[in-house]
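Sequence only, no structure available. Ideas?
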Amino acid sequence: MAAEIHSRPQSSRPVLLSKIEGHQDAVTAALLIPKEDGVITASEDRTIRVWLKRDSGQYWPSIYHTMASPCSAMTYHHDSRRIFVGQDNGAVMEFHVSEDFNKMNFIRTYPAHQNRVSAIIFSLATEWVVSTGHDKCVSWMCTRTGDMLGRHLFPSWASCLQYDFDTQYAFVGDYSGQITLLKLEQDTCSVITTLKGHEGSIACLWWDPIQRLLFSGASDNSIIMWDIGGRKGRTLLLQGHHDRVQALCYLQLTRQLVSCSSDGGIAVWNMDVSREEAPQWLESDSCQKCEQPFFWNIKQMWDTKTLGLRQHHCRKCGQAVCGKCSSKRSSYPVMGFEFQVRMCDSCYDSIKDEDRTSLATFHEGKHNISHMSMDVARGLMVTCGTDRIVKIWDMTPVVGCSLATGFSPH
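Reply:
I predicted one. Tokens follow.
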């Protein structure tokens, strides 16, 4: 693997290379075909399409296949040219694509779920197709026989999935805001641990098997990095989006995290810096600065003949403070706060101007983004969403690297 690193100015932006239009409903997944000028898309309009770039520079569909139910998830394995498509009716369908990407043959239907499929991963080593669905289940099925190998039930809809191919660990995010780590076996599974930190439903996950880092994005507009390999429970909070975080991709070579939100926001986070963990919020019956009682502290209110105050929290130290003692706002990127958040007066005074230097760049995709994937080898990104448009981006001006060989994060 060889890489050429280009130093780029901070003002550089993603370059829009192409727009693909033609779907009649929301595009739920779009995947770049490695080493080809092609894109595979799946849509709520019940079609799977393979788009190839023609001499004119435009993308035209070389394959157009209509399904029985709206398409809700998709994965593509390039070495074997197998496509797995999850549907709204709970089924997963497997196809094989011809070498010239002009023909697609149906292989098998997997009765994986009782409700909408939310994510799919294919493991060639085990010949498993692992999927999550709105029937609150993760299932894994044998692609040799089509048999169901195992299922595991969660308290709420299973919304996203990542998988470690070496250890057969599965990470499943759900609508309760919880992430479950499972060890999958041939016909059973065991729960290793659960991760809780988000205040909204988990929308996307990304697993980096080299550094053993898990990234999660949620409807609380935030991202959390979980240091699974460190075994110390270290977590980093990243807040810079103004809407639901829908997609993540960690670039291991440059230590950058790319994230997309449903309002079209694209962020590139510098993870190659020393970051601080956000503190746990402390609880108190009175302000931990001026000692004035909070409104539920009836005894102190009576004793001091004062009105109770509303409780707030300083984002830097985590102390419980009143509004008067936390009237100032500041960004603090080293702790993940890229926009201004509440600070107590002493923490605000301790922050220097250089501490406010951003550790991320933010860009506008100018369309709703519900799914994103990257071809890291070529520095390309594809985004799609409910506006039915697929956009292909050159990300090298932003991530500052292009790889000369076919590096893939999975």
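Residues 1-11, 402-410 have pLDDT under 50 and may be disordered.
Hope that gets you unstuck.
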